[in-house]
Structures are given as C-alpha cells and as structure tokens.
Amino acid sequence: MSILITGGAGFIGSNFVLDWLGQSDERVVNLDKLTYAGNLENLASLQGDARHVFVHGDIGDFTLVSRLLAEHQPRAVVNFAAESHVDRSIHGPGEFIQTNIVSTFHLLEALRAHWGALEGEARSGFRLLHVSTDEVYGSLGAGEPAFTETHRYEPNSPYSASKAASDHLVRAYHHTYGLPVVTTNCSNNYGPYHFPEKLIPLMIVNALAGKPLPVYGDGQQVRDWLYVTDHCSAIRHVLADGRPGETYNVGGWNEKTNLEIVHTVCALLDELQPRTDGRPYREQIAYVTDRPGHDRRYAIDARKLGRELGWKPAETFETGIRKTVAWYLDHRPWVANVLSGSYRDWVKKQYGD
Ligand code: NAD
Ligand code: TYD
After folding, report:
1. pLDDT confidence of residue 340
2. H-helix or E-strand spanning residue 300
C-alpha cells in the first residue's frame, strides 16, 4: 500500500511525511516541484529509506501525475502543494492562480481519469484529501463566533481567493463526478521547518540576527495557532474516517494577537538565548506599514472534527511555541542554508537543473 503526497518538501508536507513514516511503514510517494518553499533538507533523515519515494515535478503535469497513479496505485492522495504566502500573493498573484487553481484542476483531471477506471475496494476506498486554510472564510470582527464549516466563503487576498477556488473545484469534482474527496480547512501552523518568511520563524531568526522585528500595523490582528504535528494528526484522522464530500475545520483554540506572539517569542529567547548585551529582544520590535487588505481576525471552530472523528490537539500553545523556539536554536545550519539559499544548490547538485 502507498499514499501519494503532493508538496511534501514544504513546511507542513515534510512534517507530515516524517510524522507518517514515524508511525507507519506504508510507502509515501512525494511529488514536489521544489519551488523556493520546497526544501529536501527537511527530509534528510529519510535518505536511503525505501518507504519514501521522491519525485520532482508539478501537480499540474497531467501526464506525470497519471503515470505516478498508474505505477504506484496509491490508496489516497493528500494535496499540500500550493503557493502559501499571503505577502507574496500580494506582490505577484500569478503563481498563485497557476498552482493553486490551474494546477489543482490538472491534478483533479488526472485523479478523475484514474479513479474512474478503478473497481471494487480500490475504487470505494480511494480518497483525495485536499489541504486548505481558514483564510477562505475571510475576516471576523472581535465578537463574532469562530468559523464553522458552513461559514460563507469570503476570501480577501489573492492567496485565500486562489485556495477558495481550489476548494470549489475539489467540491465540484465530488458533486459532479463522485470523486471521493475530503477537505480540511486549518488555521495558522507553526513548528519545525517553517520557512522564515512567515511570522513566527521570521521573528526568531531576525531576533537572533539582531535585526528589527517587523510588526504590521498595530499588531492587534488575531490568528488561531496550531502546532504542525497536530495538523498532521488531524489529517490522519480525516484520511482514515472522514466522510467523502465533507469538509473539516482544524484549529488549536489558540487565538492570539500578533503582538502577543512576538512578545512570547522574545520572552522565550530571553530565557533560552539571552542577548549578549543583556537587553530584552522585544526592544527590536519595529512597527511597519500594514499589509494591504490585512484580515483582522481568524478563529476556527474545530468541534466537528472532535465530535465526529475524535481528534484533539496534543500541544497547547505554550508547549508548542517553546518546542518551536528550541528547534530553531538547535537547527542553526538549517536556518543558515535557507537564508543563504544554499539548500537550493544541494537540490541542483542532486537533481540537476
Ligand atoms: P509551503 O509553501 O511551505 O510548501 C508548499 C510546497 O508545495 C513546497 O514544497 C513547494 O515546492 C510545493 N509546490 C508548490 N507548487 C507546486 C506544484 N505546482 N506542484 C508540486 N509541488 C508544488 O506551504 P505549507 O505552509 O507547507 O502549506 C501546505 C498546504 O497547507 C498549502 O496548501 C497551504 O495552503 C495549506 N495551509 C497552510 C497553513 C499554514 O499555516 N502554513 C495553514 C492552513 C493550510
Ligand atoms: P503569516 O505568517 O504571513 O501568516 P498569514 O498571513 O497566512 O496569517 O502572518 C501571520 C500574521 O502576522 C499576519 O497577521 C501578518 C503578520 N505579520 C507581521 O506582522 N509581520 C511580518 O513580518 C509577517 C511575515 C507577518
């Protein structure tokens, strides 16, 4: 048996592959385009492990995906592959439209053809799990209840709009063609292997480098935070027992303002790696121009996943953020390779251009 993972060299995908193979011997075929966000160094511990088959390629390559499905006959596909950074989507939405919408469409076409030809158990047991975000629901006011699965879609950034479009395509392939899909909409993840363009790793890396800690606007925007391995366990639950055609919200019940996050990171660094001049890291905070169209608040109601599938997160924010800061302190070479871009040289050496 095997599963096909897309985007498994990125932040959540690589955590998922490591987590999966940490508790199962079922083979993982990992299809990743290795954009700037894909880093095979995340999977270095799997080198020589026959349970992990890496394939360098695009989910939008119908021929390649069809060949992989025919060759490996995976019982399920988990689609992580996407452009994922809101700020990048504001500077250049084109790649987001291409990967998150057009390439997802090609992936769905390959899956439709493959699944359509399956029979018996292989057909009835097959699943596509599409990994999405809470950002498709838009922005909440301070007193509004958290997003449930029936909240209307109201995406505000090119990133969230492109993810919303992919969710709609996935839904339509179930409704129209019967493709057995499940979709998860998760809140902000954090943890090991997080690319340091996103809030938490950026703050850790900048603080240690003595650089400013850029807080957008007033820093009072609220996000719900989930430790990445809890997202992985939620995906395993949904893959095992989720009902085809359903969507499941995933969240950590950890609403925090951005400023609270930055203060927490600074306090942990003060404790674990104090500045040489003895001053607190929070002195490095710099308020900068706000993100255009910045969503004020996300909050996720994950009760359906708990009620129907028995999932609950293992980490609190306090335990997860401490582990995360400690991981970045213990993995300075990983950070240095990402910052210098040398992880890409390794890929070139290994795979050619
Ligand atoms: P990431 O940017 O770290 O990784 C994305 C991965 O996809 C990279 O390895 C990249 O090389 C690969 N990729 C990009 N385009 C591809 C293509 N056309 N074909 C094959 N591979 C391609 O992203 P992430 O933070 O790990 O997010 C993974 C998924 O989870 C995304 O779909 C994202 O929308 C969703 N999500 C992320 C978060 C979060 O907080 N990071 C929260 C909820 C949902
Ligand atoms: P980010 O990690 O980019 O995730 P998302 O936009 O998908 O929620 O940002 C999290 C929050 O942190 C968001 O409100 C924007 C804010 N932020 C900053 O204030 N400064 C920064 O340098 C970054 C990257 C984000």
Report:
1. 86
2. none
SS3 346: helix
The values of phi and psi at residue 212, to 5°, are -65, 150
Say which CATH topology domain 2-189+226-253+294-313 has: Rossmann fold (3.40.50)
Residues 6+ apart with CB under 8 A from 325: 204, 265, 268, 269, 272
State the pLDDT confidence band at 344, using cuts at 50, 70 and 90.
low
Verify whether ligand 1 is closer than 6 Å to residue 11 (CB atom).
yes
User: Across the chain, which distance is largest between two alpha carbons, in Å?
Assistant: 68
Q: What gap in Å lies between CA 155 and CA 133, rounded to an integer?
A: 10
pLDDT greater at residue 352 or residue 154: 154
| Residue of 32, 21, 2 whose CA lies nearest to 232 | 21
Q: What is the pLDDT of residues 7-53, one digit of tens each?
A: 999 999 999 999 999 999 999 999 999 999 999 999 999 999 999 99
Kindly give the pairing relationship between strand 285-288 and strand 222-227.
unpaired
Q: Tens digit of pLDDT for each residue in 207-246?
A: 999 999 999 999 999 999 999 999 999 999 999 999 999 9
| Domain chopping of the chain, boundaries | 2-189+226-253+294-313
119 among known catalytic residues: no
For ligand 1, atom 33, the nearest C-alpha belongs to 84
β pairing state of 222-227 and 127-133 = unpaired
Give the separation between CA 186 and CA 84, rounded to whole angstroms.
Answer: 13
Closest-approaching ligand to the CA atom of 10: 1
Residue written as token pair 């998922």? 16
Whether residue 350 has pLDDT greater than 60: no
- Asked if the model's pLDDT at residue 353 lies above 80, the reply is no
pLDDT at 341: 80
The one-character DSSP state at 290 is P
Mutate to test the pocket of ligand 2, among 156, 162, 186, 198 (most ligand atoms within 8 A of CB): 198
Sole residue written with tokens 């958290």: 146
Token readout for 88 is 């990048």
